[in-house]
Amino acid sequence: MTVNELNTSKWQDFSFDLVEAQKKEVLEDKYQDVIETAFRTLGWSKAKGEICPKERINVGAANQLEPDITFRINGEAVFVVEVKQPTNKLTKRQIEQLFSYMRMRNVLYGLYIGDEIKLFYDYGQDFPADVFTFGIDIFESQGWRFVDFFARSMFSSERLKAFCSEKFKEIHSDHQWKTLEDGLNEDADSTIKNLIRDYLVTTKKCDKGIVDGYLDA
Fold first, then answer.
1. Contact 100/80 with Cβ under 8 angstroms?
2. How far is CA 186 from CA 148, 180, 190, 191, in A?
3. What is the pLDDT of residues 4-42, one digit of tens each?
């Protein structure tokens, strides 16, 4: 059996009860129990303090945050999980909530698990990047990849960071191309002028006033 085949088999074990929970439309607390058990099939230990549900984070004198699950290795937080009901459709507010947990725990990675599994990456801006989505299905074609990154024995923050950084670059590049395409469709002359202006001023360090005067002539 190849590594991918082994990981696919582990994914099927991991996702089986999540699929059943979705079919039954269980409540959030029950779903979290199922998720914690699923991660134990990937080698994470609750007894060793690696799966830490509902850890409280003090915010100021009176407020507290409570990530659904914090995952730790040798006591250090490595990623957090935000659990929602299996019928939930992710909202911007829920992403912001997950992001606040990521920042408070000082981790780069957050998982949303509800109607699907989404991997979020903190790239240092005001909102995390949604870098990968896994369908909750035992036949999910990318399930092996989830196991490859999130099985306890294979977890590597540096390897996951390299993957997330590459995915973010792809997403950002696709967004830039879409923005350029839309701009060309709306006003090709203006878009081309802006590209030339940015190149001459930013890359070639030409005087902006001279460039503007030439392009607007």
1. no
2. 43, 10, 9, 9
3. 899 999 999 999 999 999 999 999 999 999 999 999 999
Other beta carbons within 10 Å of 117: 22
Query: What is d(CA 14, CA 210) in angstroms, rounded to the nearest whole number?
Result: 62
Q: What is the pTM of this model?
A: 0.79
Give tens-digit pLDDT for 35-74.
Answer: 999 999 999 999 999 999 999 887 766 678 899 999 999 9
The three-state DSSP-derived secondary structure of the chain is CCHHHHHHHHHHHHHHHHHHHHHHCCCHHHHHHHHHHHHHHCCCCCCCCCEEECCCEEECCCEEECCCEEEEECCEEEEEEEECCCCCCCCHHHHHHHHHHHHHHCCCEEEEECCEEEEEECCCCCCCEEEEEEECCCCCCCHHHHHHHHCHHHCCHHHHHHHHHHHHHHHHHHHHHHHHHHHHHHHHHHHHHHHHHHHHHHHCCCCHHHHHHHHCC
Q: How far from 119 is each of 42, 98, 114, 146, 193, CA to CA, in Å?
A: 17, 11, 12, 10, 38
- Rg of the chain over CA atoms, in angstroms? 22
Identify the residue whose tokens are 């959030």.
28
CB contact at 8 A, 58 and 64: yes
